[in-house]
Amino acid sequence: MDEPFGSLDEVTRERLNFELLRIHQLRKPTILFVTHSLSEAVLLADRVIVLTSRPATIHTAIPVAFQQERTESTLLSTEYLHLSAQTSGYRRAGRHRMKRLVPALVFVVCVLLVWELSVRVFSIPEYLLPAPSVVLRRLFSMRAGLPAHVGYTALESALGFLLGTAFGIILAVTFTHSRTLELGIYPYAIALKTVPIVAIAPLLVVWFGNGILPKVIVAAIISFFPVVVNATKGLRNVEAEAFDLFDSMSATPSQVFFKLRVPSALPYLFAALRISSTLAVIGAIVGEFSGADRGLGFFIVISSHRLETVDMFVGILMSSALGIGFFYAIALLEKIVVPWERQTDLDVT
Hints:
The chain is mainly alpha-helical. The chain has 2 domains: about 10-90, no CATH class; about 140-340, Orthogonal Bundle (MetI-like fold), CATH 1.10.3720.10. Helix content is about 70%, strand content about 5%. Helix 6 packs parallel to helix 9 (about 215-235).
């Protein structure tokens, strides 16, 4: 059967899916069902075959085993969601990931080539704009001292990110359950966000000293606001029909929160975490600008005082690499925790 229900509306298609299941249970025929719908494949199949792009070959075979008989309630079950998420990890073409990386790599190579050629052709002094080759040579020659600065900034960023995330989630849960508290606290959260972080950092150094604590607080302040906004929106972005379903099942408030609101909020939360993770790196470095004896911010400031432009570019490069690493670490965690948000452009049978 080659996409027999593909042209139907969703309601009719669902009805015919369950009718096909009923016929299969009565007559037990062997059915080869071709579909581009991942949810349809998981609902109907005992085994899902994922094909590659043309020329089509079998990419993988995934067994689908439900513990209970498949009915309309199956579509709302956690088991169905997990099986769909597991299957969605297999992309139609194994080369898609490389195809997404190629444009970025080509762009970076082109920028570096133009940069390198411009410096050499126009004889730009090194103290104004060093060539990428010079920066990379300097980077590899600093293997002894630079990792300590990177590790210290990474620690500050991670602690600040965790603190800001925890504070943001607590505020989001509070706002979700109390409109009064939201109206009272939210304006101050906005005010804190609008204050320039470079104005707050020196005060924190005066109050808490020159150690790690003020940098962690700066990173937390700059990273918590996206978490508050997105988590609040996610916790509230639940359809009324879902609440009605949980009410009909006599769900407790805690069950509604953890089984309905939290899964709904996770995609919004991780979208905020990807942003906040990079902001935390910026916050930690800004904190180091105000007072530190180690870290990438300290390294960049000392290099600027000595007019060591190459070292400044090395510090900037490592700061960018640290932020990118945080971003993709959160993206990887999202794929594990929220697998149902993956794209599902599959050819399955």
